[in-house]
Amino acid sequence: MAGVDEAGRGPLAGPVVAAAVVLDPSRPIPGLADSKTLTARRREALAGQIRQNTWIGIGIAEPAEIDRLNILQATMTAMARAVSRLPRRPVHVLVDGNRVPEGLPCPAEALVRGDAREPAIAAASIIAKTLRDALMLEAARRWPGYGFDGHKGYPSAAHRKRLAELGPCPIHRLSYTPVRLAAESAQSTDAASCG
Question: Which residue ranges of the chain lie beneath pLDDT 70?
């Protein structure tokens, strides 16, 4: 059985990352929990154990795909990709939330608050969150003015302030209202400066 979860539905920037994890019953991993309830240090430690002792599939939907599909459909796409990238086809999939992606290769069911109830989903939430955080740390190096290393793209006051000052960068989600408004403001400022 595979557990599936995602990270990054709410941010204004960066991808949505999904993970599918199949646990090995002979190698239990103590302390698995919803990634949001763990410290960053504990998540990283658990992620290392998960990577060594499980099968993992990763699916990513980039900002342009999120803008094109909408965040729900992009999330479902990333989840389906994660399941398809497992080393072996699972016999059953448990998905955190209230929806199941279409086109999975086996029976699946949604489990509300599954990341707190099902260890395989908790493991998937940890893998998705740590990978997305690592991608946003890389984004902070590429676009240092936005503070991605601190807020990871979420709509914090600091992020909104920098977005308003700098306009969007290539990993911002242009379909999200604060980003669209910042882009429109930057365009009107550019037009005004042209004369």
Answer: 188-195
Q: In what order do the strands lie in the sheet with 2-7?
A: 54-61, 16-23, 2-7, 93-96, 108-111
| Structure tokens belonging to residue 181 | 């408004």
Amino acid at 22: V
The pTM of this model reads: 0.94
Phi, psi of 109 (to 5 degrees): -145, 150
- Report the relative pairing of strands 108-111 and 2-7 from DSSP bridges: unpaired
The confidence score (pLDDT) of residue 186 equals 79
CA atoms of 66 and 106, how far apart (whole Å): 25
* Alpha-carbon span 19 to 16, nearest angstrom: 10
Question: Interhelix angle for 40-53 vs 119-142, to 10°?
Answer: 120
Q: What is the DSSP string of 151-195?
A: HTT---HHHHHHHHHH---TTB-TTSHHHHHHHHHHHHHHHHHT-
Beta strand pairing call for 16-23 and 54-61: antiparallel
pLDDT of residue 189: 56
Q: What is the pLDDT of residue 192?
A: 44
pLDDT of residue 188: 64
Say if residues 71 and 99 touch (Cβ distance below 8 Å): no
